[in-house]
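Record passed on underneath.
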Amino acid sequence: MTFPTINYKFNDLDEAQALTDLIEQKFTSLEKYLHRGNSGTCDVEFSKVSPQLSGKVHQVGVNLLVEGTLYRAEATEESFEKAIDEVRDELDKELRRAKDKQVTMDKQSGREAKEMMLNDM
């Protein structure tokens, strides 16, 4: 499966436009949490949050919409590369929790179905 369609918003930042390959490379690690055959969209926004030149001024925000569920991550760091790593880690954590929750619910419903079948006998 490929990662959902990625839409970029650069806010007139030329240095951010060169990071599209980095985003696609980093976000491929999130494919393992997405179900096969599902389409989704990923919106990535690059911006600078203050007029100063140094410090935590580079912000990356990501909205990932999969199966009607919105996952949001945002990070502000010293560089866009660090912010991308932070956002990927946050999305990884959210997607892992959602997948674990779904697996737990599937197991619980299987146990309940088994109990119902045993009680009917």
About this structure: Residues 5-120 form a domain with the Double Stranded RNA Binding Domain fold (CATH 3.30.160.100). The chain has three helices and four strands. The mean pLDDT is 85.
